[in-house]
Amino acid sequence: MKQNLEIQIENIAKLAQAASRSLAALPSTVKNAVLEDFASALLSNQAVILKANQKDISESPGKGKAFIDRLSLDEARIKQMADSLLDIAKLKDPVDEVMRAWNTPGGLNIQKARVPIGVVAIIYESRPNVTADCIGLCFKSGNSVILRGGSEALNSNLAIFNVAKEVMQKHSLAEGAINLIATTNRQAIGYLLKLNDYIDVVIPRGGEGLIKKVVRASVIPVIKHSKGICHVYVDLDADLNMAQNICWNAKCQRPGVCNAMESMLVHRDVAARFLPGMLKKFKEAGVQIRGCALTRDIASWAKQATAKDYRTEYSDLILSVKVVDDLDAAIAHINDYGSHHSDSIVTDNNDTAAKFLKQIDSACVYLNASTRFTDGNQFGMGAEIGISTGKLHARGPMGLEELTTYKYLVYGSGQVRV
Amino acid sequence: MKQNLEIQIENIAKLAQAASRSLAALPSTVKNAVLEDFASALLSNQAVILKANQKDISESPGKGKAFIDRLSLDEARIKQMADSLLDIAKLKDPVDEVMRAWNTPGGLNIQKARVPIGVVAIIYESRPNVTADCIGLCFKSGNSVILRGGSEALNSNLAIFNVAKEVMQKHSLAEGAINLIATTNRQAIGYLLKLNDYIDVVIPRGGEGLIKKVVRASVIPVIKHSKGICHVYVDLDADLNMAQNICWNAKCQRPGVCNAMESMLVHRDVAARFLPGMLKKFKEAGVQIRGCALTRDIASWAKQATAKDYRTEYSDLILSVKVVDDLDAAIAHINDYGSHHSDSIVTDNNDTAAKFLKQIDSACVYLNASTRFTDGNQFGMGAEIGISTGKLHARGPMGLEELTTYKYLVYGSGQVRV
């Protein structure tokens, strides 16, 4: 017999699917009005949200500074959440766009039309701002959403969710359009991941452990938003000043994010010219270096890197460094040790650049630029639900368009197959 | 400790991934030459292939006529396989196509470029011609392929595969470009589905049992090619002659395929005018009818339909029939009982048509045409690997383009994020 929680989760998914049918037909003007009202309501309910957030923070002692920083809300952050919703309202609605249309010799008119995916489940870390962003992006793209945020942010998420819910009710929208799984019981995720009759895609954002667990347990298609082990490779033919700027930016400008550089590769023939100045600069910025033997010949103060270091997303002022024999070695290392997120080469050699761009198997491959640009806003897509590190359906920054699929509309006048 | 078979499967997957790196860079001219050579070699090795096929057939007694028909090869079918490869050689190579390119305000040039998915595993029924088609399509789209065909076709598949292998070797292509799991041990699939470090997508084609098993066991993303429970809905405002032609074609022209009609829905206000003639025609064609109570009021000879009937892909001269109250009831029935493959409405009412096309949640939705057109060739894509009944990445007919993904190539001149 099914447990109470299992039945609850199933009911949420059923309501979400029912709502998705009507959301798919909602005009952009209505969707935008709802988003604007949600933005205003966040501001007018600021006190309630901040109080709930204070409760979350007070119940998370000993969680570490970075964790508490991601969990914390203040007036400025609530303003950011509201502004983000207003930005989403301004973005072009992808639904119903005819991607391609053609006529067959038999006289059928075929239209490949963009439609919402249906029901999107998102499992994410304890960052309350993600709750508002995900509601905004899924709603604008015509999808029902089922949210499961980190347990430590439950009160904040509920407060934000209730504000959205009230706005949805005011606009008489279907009950299941937005859903929050408001329990810290971990079994809830297990139940959710079995419901492929109702849920069309699950997007897990977070650490490797969570992603692996979701991939293993889910019968629903998964678009994973996993770690970013991003590389910059400083080539034999690099402009070494440019390389220094790019590497410094990729590591230090915001080390806690997934598009920051975690590993720096240097061609052996420029190592002696490049590394001393670069490593000195990193040392001054407080970056801890974990290097290969050749790196440590140049900077004896650096720690020895292990194989594990080259597979680690530090999200911190720590950098693994490796001197490589040539371009092929750099490419092989990145494809093997990286996470297929964002990788960059610094070189003035066109042939070298072309080979790197072609052979690196990552969502975003850069020539002479910092990996830090992998971001929906930087790419001009507007807000993003995250960065997909999978290869199917969506790769890299995932915005409104990536929250849609398509169907073929075929217009005939009595055609039959002969 | 890993078993022998598990290690073998893992080695196949590793070689496939290694090969995929070089396949991604192979020029179209080389790929087309290989495909043409493969086509010739199939013809010149006809005797060997037919002998292997005879062995398969003789080892499959009592398997039923339709099964043996799908398993059997003859000169004409080998010619078809060869022609299909020549067709694939003529199709436009999707790899490296720039899907979109733009400049950011900061001066980055971003190109969204089509690239092969990488390693594609295909699990399919006992149809040897699929072996050649899948090799052709995956190779042309720059992917390594791992094939696991039905056990009963193993000798035929091996014979075809060996012909392809020899051609690949003649052209000095990487060993892992094409792979066949040449064992009837069912554990092989279980091992295969765990290898998400090497395999990028698995495409199961076949019955519901196989699809469910693969979806449950796989940690690799799955693009399912499941059953087609296709509907034609005859509306209140239908041209009833047209409706009769379309329904007859959708059911009878080739009942064994996935885009044939399995269920016919009729608006109650036209049932008395439409059903008597239509059902008589079906009866004459040997179609067994399983109808609702209202259907049986008109045709008392029809069997009573059960709820299970409406969820069944007969792939045969059997049809479930239901009289519905209105358009909404038709839409609800199709979205609930159907398989999201291909569904058609016959109507002259534009508003009714628009609502049906919008609200039916299927890969292909037709107005005034037979469902039988859901097919890569009919859609003008050329050969297809199958029809995806999932919503992510590829929906409906899946040709060369759907065997690719994309990556972002970002060209800078020293840009860093501020």
Task: Please name the defining characteristics of this protein.
homodimer, 418 residues, alpha/beta, Aldehyde Dehydrogenase, Chain A, domain 1, Aldehyde Dehydrogenase, Chain A, domain 2, seven-stranded parallel β-sheet, four-stranded parallel β-sheet, 42% helix
CATH class of the largest domain in chain A: Alpha Beta
- State the order of secondary-structure elements of chain A, H for helix, E for strand: HHHHHEEEHEHEHEHEHEHEHEEHEHEEEE
Q: Whole-number average pLDDT of chain A? A: 96
Spatial ordering of strands, largest sheet of chain A: 10-9-11-8-7-12-13
What's a quick, concise take on this entry?
2 copies of one chain form a homodimer. Chain A folds into 2 domains: 4-226 and 390-411, Aldehyde Dehydrogenase, Chain A, domain 1 (3-Layer(aba) Sandwich); 230-373, Aldehyde Dehydrogenase, Chain A, domain 2, CATH 3.40.309.
Structure description:
The structure is a homodimer of 418-residue chains. By secondary structure, chain A is α/β, with parallel strands linked by helices. The first copy, chain A, folds into 2 domains: 4-226 and 390-411, Aldehyde Dehydrogenase, Chain A, domain 1, CATH 3.40.605.10; 230-373, Aldehyde Dehydrogenase, Chain A, domain 2. In chain A, 42% of the residues lie in helices and 20% in strands. In chain A, the strands form 4 sheets. Chain A has a 7-stranded parallel β-sheet with strand order 10-9-11-8-7-12-13, sandwiched between helices. A 4-stranded parallel β-sheet of chain A has the order 5-4-3-6. Chain A is globular and about 70 Å long. At the A-B interface, helix 10, helix 14, strand 13 and strand 16 of A face helix 10, helix 14, strand 13 and strand 16 of B.
